[in-house]
Amino acid sequence: MTCIKLAPDAVTPIRNVDERLVSYNIEMTEVTGGTFWKAYTPEQIAGTEEFPPIASLQDGFTALNGLMQYYPPIDLYDERLRGLAKKLGPAWVRMSGTWATKTYYDFEGVTDGKAPHGYASVLTKNQWIGVLDFVKAVGGKLLVSVSNCEGDHPDGGPLDLTQAKKLFDFNHEYGVDIDAIEFMNEPNMMEMSGAPAGYTPADYARDQDILYTWVRENYPKCLLVGPCTTGDPYTVDLNSRGFGAGIGSLARTCTTQELLAGTNVALDVFSYHYYNGVSERLASVAPNAHWPSELAGSDEYLAVAPECARKHAALRDRFVPGGQMWVTESGDAGGGGNTWASTYLDVLRTLNELGSFAAITDGVIFHNTLASSDYGFLEHGCFQPRPNYFAVLLWNRLMGTTVYGCGNPGTEGAHIYCHSRKDGKPGVAYLIINNSLTAVTEVEIPRSADRYTLSAKAIRSAIMQLNGKDLAISGISDLPELIPERVEAGVMELAPGSCTFLII
Question: pTM of the predicted model, to two decimals?
Answer without folding.
Answer: 0.96
